[in-house]
Design a protein that fits this description.
It contains twelve helices and eight strands. The protein has an eight-stranded parallel barrel, surrounded by nine helices.
Length: 269
């Protein structure tokens, strides 16, 4: 895996500048397929460094009610893995630099075929994949397919991940590691910053990859707090909630610009 892709380049740039990464998550097709690419561009304009594009799935087991509803809305708009790839290709016509990670579940990849997925993702301009329900012990074949095409395979680590599994997962991981700050689903709970700090230190013993913290980040203050011991913050539920509550695309765009701008300012303060 010698070639640097956009994820690697972006984290190198951020480290050089002494800045933390803001990773933003939306579901492809939530709010309408025609609004997804404009929303991606808006996220970048407001200060997002990397975009996680959620691949809609009928049973998104790691998600809380907010993101589950985002998946449901996206499926009502006929979104799918193939549509996601088309959206990334469209995004790339104007933005050749912002890293895009597809975050989803194993079933749509298996249905498409792992090799076909890896080829299609590379051709669309995707930079990495995060497959929530693919255990590290079964990830080897997809890891190889993605790596052969210069794509990164992002893995989740949680407060309950054992030392042995941290070692296994970090050996497979590339791009960055996504640390889940809470026990539970997306959008849940209360951040325990001491626990985040301790667990990131534990993970650091096994990898030099950037560590980004997600779950439970709702505003600039929480984004700044979790990013201090790590390399960045991942923000999802609050953005998906904003899209779901907005009366139209213009209102969603305005509110997301404000939210992401606040988080960017807090990270850079």
């Amino acid at each position: 895996m010698t070639q640097k892709n956009r994820i690697d380049r972006r984290f190198t740039q951020l480290r050089t500048e002494g800045r933390k990464a803001l990773v933003t998550y939306i579901v492809a097709g939530d709010g309408g397929l025609e609004n997804t690419v404009p929303m991606m561009h808006q996220l970048v304009e407001a200060g997002s460094d990397l975009i996680e594009l959620g691949v809609p799935f009928s049973d998104p087991m790691a998600e809380g009610p907010v993101i589950q509803k985002g998946h449901e809305r996206a499926l009502e708009h006929k979104s799918s893995l193939r549509k996601c790839l088309e959206l990334v290709k469209e995004f790339r016509r104007e933005d050749g630099e912002t890293p895009v990670i597809l975050m989803g579940y194993a079933n749509p990849i298996e249905k498409m075929g792992a090799e076909q997925f890896a080829d299609a993702a590379r051709d669309a301009g995707v930079d990495g994949a995060l497959t929530v329900d693919l255990p590290a012990e079964e990830a080897g074949p997809l890891n190889q397919l993605l790596g052969d095409r210069g794509l990164r395979n992002i893995f989740l680590l949680t407060p309950t991940t054992s030392e042995e599994r941290i070692e296994t997962i970090t050996r497979l991981a590339s791009g960055f590691v996504y640390y889940v700050s809470l026990k539970g689903v997306t959008g849940a709970g209360h951040l325990d910053l001491d626990s985040v700090r301790d667990n990131l230190a534990r993970i650091r013993r096994h990898t030099d990859l950037p560590l980004c913290v997600g779950f439970g980040i709702k505003d600039g203050a929480s984004a700044r707090a979790v990013s201090e011991p790590g390399d960045g913050a991942v923000v999802g539920s609050v953005l998906v909630s904003t899209i779901g509550e907005a009366r139209d695309a213009a209102e969603a765009k305005g509110k997301i610009t404000s939210l992401v701008g606040e988080m960017r300012a807090a990270l850079d303060a």
